[in-house]
Each structure stands twice: as C-alpha cells, then as structure tokens.
Amino acid sequence: MTETRLEKLRQMELDRVKSLFKPKMRVLEIGGGNGYQAHLISSWGCEVVSIDIAERPVWPVNYFSVQDYDGVNLPFAENSFDLVFSSNVLEHVPVKNLPLLLQESCRVMRNPQAIAVHILPTSAWRFWNNIAHYAYLFKYVLGYGKTAMMPSLPSRDDAIKKYGLGHLIKRAILPEPHGEYPTALSELYFYSQKRWINEFRKAGLKTEQLLNSMVFYTGYGLTQDISPQNRAKLASYLGAATYAYVLRPDSKNR
C-alpha cells in the first residue's frame, strides 16, 4: 500500500515515542481511524486493540481492525492495558466528555507501571495554521484549492453553490476551529501545554515527559513537499506541530 502524506507525518510523530512501546505490551489505541498507527505499533511486537467512534469517516484503505465504541466508555475491564495511546484525537473529543474519557483511560491502565501517550497539536501549530489559512485561501480563490492532503474539499464554484457566498466570505475572514473549541483563536490557549497538563492532572494523570515531535506542518497541506530533515529544522525555529504527553496515573488518586 502507498502511504499518504498525512500517514507519513503520523509515522514521523509516532517514531518519536517508539521507545516507549515495548514488545509484548498490551496497547489500547483510542481514535484508531483507519488503523494505520495501530498497524505500526503491532509491527513492533505489541498486542494492540484499536477503537474509534462508529461515526468516524470511511477510509479508502484500512490497515488494522478498529472496534466501535461510544466515545467515552471504554469497553474493557480495569487494569487491562500497559499503555493507552492516542494521536491527534483528544482535541476532537467534546469538551464535556474529555474528563470522563481520561478517567476511563486511568481505569483500564494496569498498576503500577502503565503509561498513557497522547500526541496532541500545539499552540504553534494553531498559530501557523491561522496564517496558512490566508495563504491557502488565496490559492482557493484562484481555483487551486485541492491538495493531496485535502482532496475531498469542494471546488470554489461547488462550495458557493452548496453553502452560498456568505458562508465563504465568513470562512475567508476567520478560519474554522480544528477541534471541539469555540474558535480557531481560542485554540491558541486550548492547545497550550499548560492547558493539556492541567486537564490530565484533573483526571488523575501526572505528566512525566513532554516530547517534541520535531515535525512542522500545517493543516492546509502547504508544506507537503518538505523533507523530514527540513521539517525538523522548521520545528526548531517555528515550533513543532505536535507534542507527545507521556503520563502515568497519579497514585494519590488510585
């Protein structure tokens, strides 16, 4: 199978935390999508269970079996997993459900050495994505809106016909939020390290490590032809698109 550019980015991010996935570990992946990352983790000798909501997008290629769940309640017994993993998922969990899901992840983690690894977008990614919105908009107005990372986006004329000119004008002024938050600007805070760490703490998880992915990209595919080496250089200067939060249940809360 030929990997997409997005899948290659996900592999770069996953490689930064590969050392945490030991052979024979029982791993739960939350938000498995098409199973691409579960497939990679399984190839490292881990026993992987991948889950996602039933309403997830239909993927043209599926790499690994992904089970349905309701988005909050993990259908597993206590102490079932050595590692709980998610990649670019928690920002899409409804705000009211996030504490419940994190508490559920604590419940299914084995004592005393289990960890959670969550790869999450950064404030730097949100900032540069806001800037990229206007560069992308310029291309879109000229009729060059589709990219390899966003092939399903309707053409300019189709979008006007479907949503109306007013909708496009509104979209032009302000980019839409990426996740379950009010605005793209508010995500500058919601994707900050301080905010994520506080959410984990409230759910009974302490942050043991914060790993820079050393990958730079925007959600508009404007950097799709940049080499991994140059992505790492840009991440050093402009900020990484994601960080990996390595967490452990706080013994005080168990």
Q: Spell the H/E element sequence.
A: HEHEEEHEHHHHHEHE
Q: Give the averaged pLDDT, no decimals.
A: 87
CATH superfamily of the largest domain: Vaccinia Virus protein VP39
Radius of gyration: 19 Å
Low-pLDDT parts are: 147-153
CATH architecture of the largest domain: 3-Layer(aba) Sandwich
Question: Any idea how many domains?
Answer: 2
What portion of the residues fall into strands of 2 or more residues? 15-25%
As laid out across the biggest beta sheet, the strand order is 3-2-1-4-5-7-6
What level of helicity do the residues show? 25-40%
The span between the termini is 43 Å
Structure description:
- By secondary structure, this protein is α/β, with parallel strands linked by helices.
- The chain has 2 domains: 5-123 and 185-253, Rossmann fold, CATH 3.40.50; 125-173, no CATH class.
- 36% of the residues lie in helices and 17% in strands.
- The chain contains 9 helices and 7 strands.
- Strands 3-2-1-4-5-7-6 form a 7-stranded mixed sheet, with helices on both faces.
- Strand 4 (83-87), helix 3 and strand 5 form a beta-alpha-beta unit.
- Helix 5 crosses helix 6.
- It is globular, with a radius of gyration of 19 Å.
- It starts with a helix and ends in a 5-residue tail after the last strand.
- The model is unreliable at 147-153 (pLDDT under 50).
